[in-house]
Please model this.
Amino acid sequence: MYEKTNTCGKDATPSGLALLRDPALNRGTGFTEAERDKYNLRGFLPPHVHNQEEQAVRVLTRLRALTDPLEKFVALNALHDRNESLYFRVLCDNIDEMQPLVYTPTVGLACQKFGHIFQRPRGLFIGANDRGRIAQLLRNWPYQAGIIVVTDGERILGLGDLGANGMGIPVGKLSLYTACAGVHPQLCLPVTIDVGCNNTAMLEDPFYVGLRQRRLTGAAYDSLLDEFISAACEVFPGVTIQFEDFANHNAFRLLKKYRDRICTFNDDIQGTAAVALAGILSALRITGGKFTEQKLLFLGAGEAATGICDLVVSAMMAHGLPEAAARQRCWAVDSRGLVVKSRTDLAEHKLPYAHDHAPVGDFLSAIKTLKPTAIVGVAAVGGTFTQEVLEEMARINERPIVFALSNPTSKAECNAEEAYRWTKGRALFACGSPFDPVKFEGRTYVPRQGNNSYIFPGVGLGAIASRTRRITDEMFMGAAQTLAQLVTESDLAQGSLYPALPRIREVSAHIAAAVAETAYRCGLAGKPKPADVLADVRAQMFDPHY
Ligand code: NAD
Model:
């Protein structure tokens, strides 16, 4: 039934132009004859009724005629602003094509140009000048938020400090929560905390949308974040808060500070970890190798690398390995060489993986010395998985695991073609950026992206469905296992370590159920366990089709 009800259950749907201007309710030319009568729409719409399917074809036709991804982004944004169900239908039905437009890589460009392409605000901007009134500001939001994605814009993708322009990230990410997992759009609240910006190009851009000041630091920064967290939990009880694109020096600290106090996670650290762990578990379905016998060597030792290491260690411990032995399975090379104990320049988050070992200066030498079963590229330095690196991995492993996860494509450690060619088709390859299938010596390999969007939407949905009070490592391990199990034999046969993206809603439902199961089992859920957890999760998924 098409209507919005008020708290007394009465039809509160606006009529006439007000209805056409409400993106949550507007159906444009899709309003039926009966709805046009009921809601006083006669005259505002051209006479012919186009059903939603026809409208979606029109949107796609127009979109595909555009050549510039940023123009496509703008067109999709405009659709989001005027007809939410149609926007999400287009996303859901064409997720392979749309995800790179509403999220990486296009969203990076959109953030850089945010002020230039700005049309309508979305989400909430909380500025350093809002100190003392954040709760009041959150109360302006017309819905009861179930999930907040928050950034301070300091480390947007691999692009650095974009300040308040970073708002494109929470907006895009929450679109994926809805498209990939059916989290209801009204439960989704994008937030940007504008603590200033240290990027001079932004501050000097006349169209920059943020405060013209340098970033807050220290106690001034922490107390603003604290006020936001307390206010969000007060105004939206039970809300899940996902941290996104905070710089290293705040991301680890904030996660540690809040993870045992509120329902929160950091996708750059924990979502990445789960998607990478899933890829490794899928690869082991092909090699038959034992998980606890894997040795991982990372290129990069930042949020992604540390997050993956931490979850791999937890998962190895769950498989019976002592913590110290599990840590010995994870090694990293950063810009100054192998992360080892004798180094005095290591940031705190690297210390658990600083092992007793002689210094090694470069990645290839580290491979030769350590003989890893898997290499994971997360340093955002393009071309670093060279021919020599890949040949060496193929020399020491029958089936080397090679994850080139850095984004965007220009930063990828190697492309898919190189991964297969230089390992003679033996690499078990996953990538951060999309690559086309590769033909090599008569076989076709279909590399798939180790994209966080396999994980975070399902985790968010599971958190909302079970009303969990915390998001734990065990939940991310469960998410990773579930994802790996959903990879089919025919996926594996073509070298795909992840399911096909069009299955994402099914994948997310299963991940949400796994997360919710953990919440019920661990006494973290905010409601009694339903008889059928998967059915309960599915019942809460928003379907944009009508
Ligand atoms: P980060 O800034 O936290 O970490 C980058 C790390 O790389 C730092 O430890 C830095 O010291 C190291 N580094 C820099 N130059 C190096 C060099 N020349 N050699 C070796 N190490 C070097 O960033 P992050 O969040 O960890 O992300 C890193 C990359 O991974 C980005 O490109 C990001 O897009 C990508 N990523 C991909 C996925 C995914 O595919 N699912 C998820 C998260 C991050």
Observations:
- The chain has four domains: 16-97, 102-262, 270-451, 455-539.
- The longest helix spans residues 267-287.
- The chain has 24 helices and 14 strands.
- The two ends are 10 Å apart (CA to CA).
